[in-house]
Design a protein that fits this description.
This protein folds into two domains: 68 residues, lambda repressor-like DNA-binding domains (434 Repressor (Amino-terminal Domain), Orthogonal Bundle); 35 residues. 65% of the residues lie in helices and 0% in strands. The chain has 108 residues and is mostly helical.
Length: 108
């Protein structure tokens, strides 16, 4: 489990990632959220400044991400298959494809 500082760094990194994906500068995001300057976003992204859940919700909306994206809440993905009649190599290949699909789901 992450300590408090690591949690804020993680959230900040996710904000940076989403902001860059959206093509916004720190100043652009700061203005959209209602902060005075891009420095506020810089400090949040580095984990040096805490933020309210209300501000995080605003950022999520602006950045077109769900709140869980910033909090590392992974989707509930459950998959099962029966390998009856498959050889070991085929069963491993199918398992690999399932793991890749789950990983993609977690990245969304």
């Amino acid at each position: 489990m992450r300590n408090e500082k690591e949690k804020y760094k993680f959230i900040g990194a996710k904000i940076r990632e989403a902001r860059n994906k959206k093509g916004l500068s720190q100043k652009d995001l700061a203005e959209a959220v209602g902060f005075d300057s891009g420095t506020s976003i810089s400090l949040i992204e580095s984990g040096e400044r805490k933020m309210s859940i209300v501000d995080l919700e605003k950022m999520a909306e602006i950045l077109n991400e769900e709140l869980k994206y910033f909090l590392s809440i992974e989707p509930d993905v459950r998959v099962s298959f029966r390998a009856d009649g498959l050889d070991k190599k085929d069963a491993e290949a199918i398992q690999h494809i399932i793991e890749m699909a789950k990983k993609r789901a977690y990245e969304r």
